[in-house]
Amino acid sequence: MKIGMRTVKTGIAISICIFISRLLNFQSPFYSAIAAIITMENTFSNSWQAGKNRMLGTVLGAVIGLVFALIQPGSILLSGLGTITVIFLSNLLGWEKATSIACVVFLAIMTNLGGKSPFLYSLNRIRDTFIGIIIAIIVNYLIFPPDYQQKFYTDLQSFLERLEQLRATNLNLLDKTEFSALKQDLEELKKQFMILKSEFGFRKSKPEELDQFQDILDLSKQILNKMELIYLLKESSLCN
Fold this sequence. Notes:
By secondary structure, this protein is mostly helical. It is 79% helix and 0% strand.
Protein backbone atom coordinates (compact mmCIF):
# COMPACT_ATOMS: atom_id res chain seq x y z
CA MET A 1 0.00 0.00 0.00
CA LYS A 2 1.56 3.27 -1.12
CA ILE A 3 1.13 6.77 0.28
CA GLY A 4 -0.81 8.97 -2.15
CA MET A 5 0.20 12.48 -3.16
CA ARG A 6 -2.88 13.96 -1.49
CA THR A 7 -1.65 12.51 1.81
CA VAL A 8 1.84 13.90 1.28
CA LYS A 9 0.54 17.34 0.30
CA THR A 10 -1.74 17.41 3.34
CA GLY A 11 1.26 16.78 5.58
CA ILE A 12 3.22 19.54 3.83
CA ALA A 13 0.32 21.98 4.24
CA ILE A 14 0.03 21.14 7.96
CA SER A 15 3.74 21.77 8.51
CA ILE A 16 3.53 25.13 6.73
CA CYS A 17 0.47 26.12 8.80
CA ILE A 18 2.30 25.35 12.04
CA PHE A 19 5.43 27.16 10.86
CA ILE A 20 3.53 30.31 9.89
CA SER A 21 1.50 30.28 13.11
CA ARG A 22 4.69 30.15 15.18
CA LEU A 23 6.44 32.68 12.98
CA LEU A 24 3.60 35.18 13.40
CA ASN A 25 3.15 34.26 17.06
CA PHE A 26 -0.45 33.13 16.71
CA GLN A 27 -2.06 31.53 19.73
CA SER A 28 -2.54 28.12 18.09
CA PRO A 29 -2.07 26.55 14.65
CA PHE A 30 -4.98 24.16 15.30
CA TYR A 31 -7.69 25.95 13.32
CA SER A 32 -5.51 26.75 10.32
CA ALA A 33 -4.32 23.13 10.25
CA ILE A 34 -7.91 21.84 10.37
CA ALA A 35 -8.83 24.20 7.52
CA ALA A 36 -5.90 22.88 5.47
CA ILE A 37 -6.96 19.26 6.05
CA ILE A 38 -10.55 19.93 4.99
CA THR A 39 -9.51 22.00 1.97
CA MET A 40 -6.99 19.52 0.56
CA GLU A 41 -8.75 17.52 -2.16
CA ASN A 42 -7.76 15.29 -5.07
CA THR A 43 -8.18 18.12 -7.61
CA PHE A 44 -7.46 21.83 -7.49
CA SER A 45 -11.04 22.74 -8.36
CA ASN A 46 -12.34 20.54 -5.53
CA SER A 47 -9.89 22.20 -3.14
CA TRP A 48 -11.11 25.59 -4.27
CA GLN A 49 -14.73 24.59 -3.63
CA ALA A 50 -13.92 23.00 -0.26
CA GLY A 51 -11.98 26.12 0.75
CA LYS A 52 -14.89 28.31 -0.28
CA ASN A 53 -17.33 26.24 1.79
CA ARG A 54 -14.97 26.29 4.75
CA MET A 55 -14.58 30.07 4.56
CA LEU A 56 -18.31 30.71 4.22
CA GLY A 57 -19.04 28.41 7.15
CA THR A 58 -16.35 29.99 9.29
CA VAL A 59 -17.57 33.54 8.68
CA LEU A 60 -21.19 32.60 9.35
CA GLY A 61 -20.33 30.63 12.49
CA ALA A 62 -18.03 33.39 13.74
CA VAL A 63 -20.62 36.13 13.24
CA ILE A 64 -23.43 34.19 14.93
CA GLY A 65 -21.03 33.03 17.64
CA LEU A 66 -19.96 36.61 18.30
CA VAL A 67 -23.55 37.81 18.62
CA PHE A 68 -24.57 35.05 21.03
CA ALA A 69 -21.30 35.20 23.01
CA LEU A 70 -21.84 38.93 23.59
CA ILE A 71 -25.18 38.04 25.18
CA GLN A 72 -23.96 35.18 27.40
CA PRO A 73 -20.97 33.00 26.46
CA GLY A 74 -21.28 29.35 27.42
CA SER A 75 -25.05 29.52 27.88
CA ILE A 76 -26.65 26.09 27.43
CA LEU A 77 -29.86 27.55 26.03
CA LEU A 78 -28.14 30.03 23.71
CA SER A 79 -25.76 27.35 22.43
CA GLY A 80 -28.73 25.30 21.26
CA LEU A 81 -30.61 28.29 19.85
CA GLY A 82 -27.48 29.55 18.13
CA THR A 83 -26.87 26.19 16.47
CA ILE A 84 -30.44 26.22 15.17
CA THR A 85 -29.86 29.74 13.85
CA VAL A 86 -26.63 28.74 12.10
CA ILE A 87 -28.26 25.74 10.40
CA PHE A 88 -31.30 27.78 9.38
CA LEU A 89 -29.20 30.57 7.86
CA SER A 90 -26.92 28.10 6.07
CA ASN A 91 -29.91 26.49 4.39
CA LEU A 92 -31.50 29.85 3.67
CA LEU A 93 -28.35 31.12 1.95
CA GLY A 94 -27.81 27.87 0.05
CA TRP A 95 -24.61 27.09 1.96
CA GLU A 96 -25.59 23.54 2.94
CA LYS A 97 -22.04 22.23 2.50
CA ALA A 98 -20.79 24.88 4.93
CA THR A 99 -23.30 24.02 7.66
CA SER A 100 -21.13 21.60 9.67
CA ILE A 101 -18.14 23.94 9.70
CA ALA A 102 -20.34 26.89 10.66
CA CYS A 103 -21.72 24.95 13.63
CA VAL A 104 -18.23 23.90 14.76
CA VAL A 105 -16.95 27.49 14.68
CA PHE A 106 -20.06 28.79 16.45
CA LEU A 107 -19.70 26.26 19.27
CA ALA A 108 -15.95 26.90 19.53
CA ILE A 109 -16.70 30.56 20.20
CA MET A 110 -19.62 29.91 22.54
CA THR A 111 -17.94 27.24 24.66
CA ASN A 112 -14.22 27.95 24.42
CA LEU A 113 -13.73 31.66 25.06
CA GLY A 114 -12.06 31.24 28.44
CA GLY A 115 -12.39 34.92 29.29
CA LYS A 116 -11.10 36.11 25.92
CA SER A 117 -12.72 38.91 23.93
CA PRO A 118 -15.53 37.42 21.79
CA PHE A 119 -14.73 39.86 18.99
CA LEU A 120 -11.01 39.06 18.87
CA TYR A 121 -11.62 35.34 19.25
CA SER A 122 -14.09 35.34 16.34
CA LEU A 123 -11.74 37.42 14.20
CA ASN A 124 -8.86 35.07 14.95
CA ARG A 125 -10.90 32.03 13.89
CA ILE A 126 -11.62 33.68 10.54
CA ARG A 127 -7.94 34.62 10.13
CA ASP A 128 -6.70 31.13 11.01
CA THR A 129 -9.16 29.49 8.64
CA PHE A 130 -8.22 31.82 5.80
CA ILE A 131 -4.53 31.03 6.27
CA GLY A 132 -5.15 27.28 6.27
CA ILE A 133 -7.28 27.47 3.13
CA ILE A 134 -4.76 29.57 1.21
CA ILE A 135 -1.88 27.29 2.18
CA ALA A 136 -3.77 24.14 1.15
CA ILE A 137 -4.80 25.61 -2.20
CA ILE A 138 -1.28 26.82 -3.00
CA VAL A 139 0.30 23.50 -2.01
CA ASN A 140 -2.25 21.55 -4.05
CA TYR A 141 -1.67 23.73 -7.10
CA LEU A 142 2.13 23.94 -7.02
CA ILE A 143 3.33 20.61 -5.60
CA PHE A 144 3.00 17.61 -7.93
CA PRO A 145 -0.27 18.72 -9.54
CA PRO A 146 -1.99 15.74 -11.23
CA ASP A 147 -2.01 15.88 -15.03
CA TYR A 148 -5.62 14.87 -15.66
CA GLN A 149 -5.47 15.89 -19.30
CA GLN A 150 -2.58 13.57 -20.10
CA LYS A 151 -4.18 10.65 -18.24
CA PHE A 152 -7.48 11.25 -20.01
CA TYR A 153 -5.74 11.46 -23.40
CA THR A 154 -3.81 8.22 -22.79
CA ASP A 155 -6.91 6.32 -21.64
CA LEU A 156 -8.93 7.73 -24.53
CA GLN A 157 -6.33 6.57 -27.05
CA SER A 158 -6.38 3.08 -25.53
CA PHE A 159 -10.19 3.01 -25.65
CA LEU A 160 -10.33 4.11 -29.28
CA GLU A 161 -7.80 1.45 -30.28
CA ARG A 162 -9.90 -1.24 -28.59
CA LEU A 163 -13.06 0.14 -30.21
CA GLU A 164 -11.40 -0.04 -33.63
CA GLN A 165 -10.26 -3.61 -32.95
CA LEU A 166 -13.83 -4.52 -32.03
CA ARG A 167 -15.16 -2.90 -35.20
CA ALA A 168 -12.69 -4.83 -37.35
CA THR A 169 -13.50 -8.19 -35.72
CA ASN A 170 -15.87 -10.62 -37.40
CA LEU A 171 -19.25 -10.56 -35.65
CA ASN A 172 -19.17 -14.34 -35.31
CA LEU A 173 -16.06 -14.08 -33.16
CA LEU A 174 -17.40 -11.41 -30.81
CA ASP A 175 -18.66 -11.89 -27.28
CA LYS A 176 -21.28 -9.76 -25.53
CA THR A 177 -18.93 -9.15 -22.60
CA GLU A 178 -16.62 -7.18 -24.89
CA PHE A 179 -19.32 -4.57 -25.37
CA SER A 180 -19.96 -4.42 -21.62
CA ALA A 181 -16.26 -3.90 -20.91
CA LEU A 182 -16.01 -1.06 -23.42
CA LYS A 183 -19.14 0.56 -22.02
CA GLN A 184 -17.62 0.52 -18.54
CA ASP A 185 -14.43 2.07 -19.88
CA LEU A 186 -16.46 4.74 -21.67
CA GLU A 187 -18.25 5.62 -18.42
CA GLU A 188 -14.89 5.92 -16.68
CA LEU A 189 -13.67 8.22 -19.46
CA LYS A 190 -16.75 10.38 -18.95
CA LYS A 191 -15.90 10.71 -15.25
CA GLN A 192 -12.34 11.70 -16.12
CA PHE A 193 -13.67 14.22 -18.61
CA MET A 194 -15.90 15.80 -15.96
CA ILE A 195 -12.85 16.25 -13.74
CA LEU A 196 -10.97 17.75 -16.69
CA LYS A 197 -13.82 20.20 -17.30
CA SER A 198 -13.92 21.18 -13.63
CA GLU A 199 -10.20 21.98 -13.80
CA PHE A 200 -10.72 24.21 -16.84
CA GLY A 201 -9.78 27.76 -15.95
CA PHE A 202 -7.22 26.57 -13.39
CA ARG A 203 -5.07 24.64 -15.86
CA LYS A 204 -3.88 25.06 -19.44
CA SER A 205 -6.74 23.22 -21.14
CA LYS A 206 -8.11 25.03 -24.18
CA PRO A 207 -11.89 25.26 -24.71
CA GLU A 208 -11.62 23.85 -28.25
CA GLU A 209 -9.79 20.79 -26.88
CA LEU A 210 -12.62 20.16 -24.43
CA ASP A 211 -15.15 20.44 -27.25
CA GLN A 212 -13.18 17.93 -29.33
CA PHE A 213 -12.99 15.49 -26.42
CA GLN A 214 -16.74 15.81 -25.87
CA ASP A 215 -17.42 15.13 -29.56
CA ILE A 216 -15.17 12.06 -29.50
CA LEU A 217 -16.94 10.65 -26.45
CA ASP A 218 -20.38 11.25 -27.95
CA LEU A 219 -19.39 9.68 -31.27
CA SER A 220 -17.77 6.71 -29.54
CA LYS A 221 -20.97 6.06 -27.61
CA GLN A 222 -23.02 6.13 -30.82
CA ILE A 223 -20.63 3.76 -32.60
CA LEU A 224 -20.54 1.36 -29.68
CA ASN A 225 -24.33 1.31 -29.36
CA LYS A 226 -24.82 0.68 -33.08
CA MET A 227 -22.23 -2.09 -33.11
CA GLU A 228 -23.89 -3.76 -30.14
CA LEU A 229 -27.30 -3.45 -31.81
CA ILE A 230 -26.00 -5.12 -34.99
CA TYR A 231 -24.45 -7.88 -32.88
CA LEU A 232 -27.69 -8.48 -30.96
CA LEU A 233 -29.73 -8.53 -34.16
CA LYS A 234 -27.38 -11.10 -35.65
CA GLU A 235 -27.55 -13.20 -32.48
CA SER A 236 -31.32 -13.01 -32.55
CA SER A 237 -31.48 -14.12 -36.19
CA LEU A 238 -29.21 -17.07 -35.45
CA CYS A 239 -31.45 -18.16 -32.58
CA ASN A 240 -34.48 -18.03 -34.83
